[in-house]
Every structure is written in structure tokens, then in C-alpha cells.
Amino acid sequence: MIISLSADHAGFQYKELIKKHLSEKGFEVIDRGTFSEVSVDYPDYVQKSAADVIGGNADYGIGVCGSGIGVSIAANKVKGIRAALVLNEEMASLSRKHNNANFLALSEKFIDKDHLFNIVDIWLSTQFEGGRHQRRIDKLEQI
Predict the structure, then answer these.
(1) Is 133 considered catalytic here?
(2) Mean pLDDT score of the chain, rounded to an integer?
(3) CATH code of the domain occupying 2-142
(4) Is residue 115 flagged as an active site residue?
(5) Of 53, 57, 71, 55, the residue nearest 111 (C-alpha)
């Protein structure tokens, strides 16, 4: 599985932790930056990860910023992306089961480091339930 990873300066530390974690678990990671804590604009990096997902270069995207809100908004501007801002394990599971999210938006400020890897692992391992949820996904795609 290939994951495209991106962050702004406020999410840089978690991006680096996630990259190491995923690589150790055998995932291929495309790192779209940023590459330091120097202030940058999150849309510049998130759009690259979202494009990787839509273009078929990555199976999923993960973006990190301070709150997670900015990367979620930026990713959702890309047609075909269903980014979910996830702050805990239950949200990780539901965003995949019910929303078939293909982009995980994370907060470095509001997610405790002790939960970070568990959130990522749950999100990547949870399957979409389909059924009644597919009808809703189809409607989202028409917007």
C-alpha cells in the first residue's frame, strides 16, 4: 500500500513520526513535504498528496497541520477526495466504515502522541461497509 504524506510546519513533527511508523510497517510512503518547521502554507503540500490519491500514485493520503482543519479543507477542494478530520480512534474507524474517506487529516495540537499511531493504524485497516453508505458516497461525488 502506498501512502502520500504531507504537512505544514505545525504538523511537521507528526508527519515525520508517521512516516517512520508506516515505513517500519512495510508501507511505501511518498513524502510531499514540508521538510522543516519553517512556516509554510499547508495547501501547497496537501494538494500534492491529494493529487497522488486521485491520480492513482497513492492508495491514501494523510495530511497534518496544527488543528487538522486546514489540511482537511484543502484536501476536500480536490475533486474525488473525501478527507476526514480525525481526532480519535472511533472517528478513524467511522470515517472509513461510513464515509470511505481516502484522505486522513490529523492535528498535531489536539491528538496526543500516545494515540497517533493507533489512529493511523485503525484508519488504514478499516474497510468501507458499503451498503446504505454507498448511496451517500455516490451523492457526495455528484456535488
Answers:
(1) no
(2) 97
(3) 3.40.1400.10
(4) no
(5) 71
